[in-house]
Each structure stands twice: as C-alpha cells, then as structure tokens.
Amino acid sequence: MDIGERIERRRATPPAANLVVEWSALSPVTHVSNPVGRGSTLERLLDALDPLFSGHLPPNVHLYGPPGAGKSALVSALFSQLATQLSPERGTILTTTRAVDEDGFDFVYIDARTASTAFRLYRTVLDSLTDDHVPERGVGTGVLQRKLATAVSRSNKVVVAVDHVGEDETLAAEEVTALFEDMSGSLSVLTVGRTRGREEHALEIPAYSTHELTDVVTERASRGLRQGILDHARVKTIAEWAEGDAHDALAALFGAVTLAVDADADRILDEYLEAAMDAVPRDGVSLGIVLSLPENRRRVLAELLELDTDARTSVESSAAAIATETDLSPGTVTRYLYELAEAGVLERITTRNGRRSGRQPSRLEPRFPTLVFRALHED
C-alpha cells in the first residue's frame, strides 16, 4: 500500500465508523497481491524461474519452509503477476535485454488440498487450458492424463504451481512431479510444501523474523482496521507471540478484532488479544486445511464448538448432542469426529472417571483457531 492510499483510506473513514474497514484484509486465509517481508526469497525464486524471461521453460522447483512462512502468499501472488506479464494475452514482451516469444506461457496455481488425487490435479490443469467441458467423473485418470498431454502439446508452455504438497491428505512433491513427467517438454512444476524432499532444485523459505512479522501485521491492520484501533505495542506482542508464524499472528489479530466488535469496544484491548491468542493452538492445524474440509465435516466442527462442557465429556456424548442439531445420525457424527481426530484437526484428551472401569472416555479439543473459524464458517 502506498502513502497516498494510506492517507485516502484514513480520510474516507469517519471517526464514528466501526472498528473494521475490511475484514478480508485481516483474515489469515487471504493472500495479498504484494506480500510483505519476502523480498529476498522472491528474488531467489525468480532466479530459479529465470528461463521464463527468455521464453524457455524453467526446471522443476520445490519451495519449502515452516508453517506460516508466507509460501502460499508469495507463490500465489507471483503466479498472478506472471500470468499478467507473460500470458498469451499479453503478447510479445520486450525489455532492454530480452524478448519473450509471443506465444507466452500458461500459469496454473493449484491448492493440493482441493486437488488431492492425480485425477483432480489433471482435471484442474486441463480445465485451465481449455474452454471445453472437462468431466468431473465418469472417465478414468489415464484418459484424463492423455487428454491433458494432448492439450499441453498443443498449447503454450505451461508452468504449474502445486501448493500444500506433502500433507496428510495431499500428494508428496515427488508424486506430483512424477505425474507430469511425460509432459516435461512443455510443462514444468513448482511444488510448495513444508519439508525439503528429494527435488534437485529446492529453495528454502525461512520463518519470519519478529521485525518482518510486525510489518506483516501492521500492513494487514492498516488495511483492515480504522485508525487508532491497534497500537504498535500490541502489534509487537502479536509478532513476538507468533514466533515467526504469520498464520497464527493473523489468526490472533482476527480473533481479537471479533472479540472487540462483539463487546462494542472502540479499540483492541489486552484482554481481547490474550483471549484471541489462547484460541490459537500452538502447532495447530491451519485454517486452510479446516476450511477445505467437506461442508458436513465443517458443520460438525461448528456444532462441537457450541457444546457446553457437560455435552463434551466423551466422543459419544458430543456426537449425540451434535446429531440433535443436524440431519446426521449419531453414528455418522461419531465417525466424522474420530476421522477429524485422526487427521489432527481435533485432539482426544482422556477424561478420568473413577466410577468407570476399563477404557476411559475422551473428550475432543479443537486444534485450529476457533474464533476465526466461527467467523469464517458463519460467512
């Protein structure tokens, strides 16, 4: 955001306005067009993709780093800009030193959480390359692969970014790269994940420093909040607490704002900030994973959060209470809860019951930012 934009935003916001100017700017699942604090990593990534600017395919690249390091924000923003600058619609691009061929490139960004199988990956890429209808079912993966290979051979050169590889429910980076190996003459892959893997060209992105994370939170707050709502001392508190994880920092910010709004407060107080940070589990599951779950699983989670303590003494009691609020059977809800616990979205905590012999019951605790989930799920 430039200086003029900051001034205009403040002039346009009356003193009596609500705390929030733009909720999406505060959300940890929103990616901005120009990520803050990732300049050096961006330069290294551009170095790896340098053949693009001479009209050639780059090698396959793997970008990796810890949760909340800004990987998704950086890659999604970069691919958006590359599509604008180097797409076929852009035509021939000339610089003082290079000329990019007029055919250009096709850039495809994919979230592996919503394309977690070979079929879905192939379909997503093919759908982005053609105006023809691409079936969602009724054809085999091999058929779809051959259709994609034909489309790639006839199209411009294609660069595919596959984000969130190597998670519990997504393909590994090596698996993704292997799926497109037969198309390597016209297609290259940028995979993005948390671990190094075995890729030849790998780039590490470090966690944010406290200073960088302070800048990230400040930038988001300046876009999303009215002037004077959040002071610098509290911004620094968030950045220090988050320990380099931008997802957790923004989840705490978003949660604190929701509490302040609910209390009809005129600023973010320490009590709201502390409660919001308590609602973001350490080493928890990212909101992106939770929000990508099927709707019925998300509804079960939302109902679980509304249960009182007595109803959450065991998985079975929680399932029975949730079933009364949904059109799902207690058995189905129980299965969902156990699956969510297996995936790490929920944690089973043993409940000691001296009056019961044998296996002790367990209650379920969320492993994701609950305040933000409530707000985004309701939307």
Features:
single chain; 379 residues; alpha/beta; Helicase, Ruva Protein, domain 3; Rossmann fold; Arc Repressor Mutant, subunit A; 3 domains; 5-stranded parallel sheet; two-stranded antiparallel ribbon; 9 strands; 45% helix; globular; WH-like_DNA-bd_sf
Q: How many structural domains can be distinguished in the coordinates?
A: 3
User: Radius of gyration, Cα only, in angstroms?
Assistant: 23 Å
Largest β-sheet summary = 5 strands, parallel
Mean pLDDT: 88
| Termini Cα gap | 27 Å
Q: What spatial form do the alpha-carbon principal axes imply?
A: globular
**Spatial order of the strands in the main sheet?**
4-5-6-1-7
CATH architecture of the largest domain: 3-Layer(aba) Sandwich
Please report the total strand number as a whole number.
9
In CATH, the homologous superfamily of the largest domain goes by the name P-loop containing nucleotide triphosphate hydrolases
Any overview of this molecule?
It is a single chain. By secondary structure, the chain is an alpha/beta fold. The chain folds into three domains: 3-16 and 211-278, Helicase, Ruva Protein, domain 3 (Orthogonal Bundle), CATH 1.10.8; 39-204, Rossmann fold (3-Layer(aba) Sandwich), CATH 3.40.50; 287-378, Winged helix-like DNA-binding domain superfamily/Winged helix DNA-binding domain (Arc Repressor Mutant, subunit A, Orthogonal Bundle). Helix content is 45%, strand content 12%. It is built from 16 helices and nine strands. The chain has helices at 3-11, 23-26, 39-48, 71-86, 118-129, 141-154, 173-179, 210-224, 232-242, 246-262, 270-278, 287-291, 295-306, 315-323, 330-342, 370-378, and strands spanning 61-64, 93-94, 99-100, 105-111, 157-165, 187-193, 202-204, 346-350, 362-366. The strands form three sheets. The chain has a five-stranded parallel beta sheet with strand order 4-5-6-1-7, sandwiched between helices. The chain has a two-stranded antiparallel sheet with strand order 2-3. The chain has a two-stranded antiparallel sheet with strand order 8-9. Strand 2 (93-94) and strand 3 (99-100) form a beta hairpin. Helix 9 (232-242) packs across helix 10 and helix 10 crosses helix 11. The chain is globular, with a radius of gyration of 23 Å. Mean pLDDT is 88; it is low at 13-17 and 90-102.
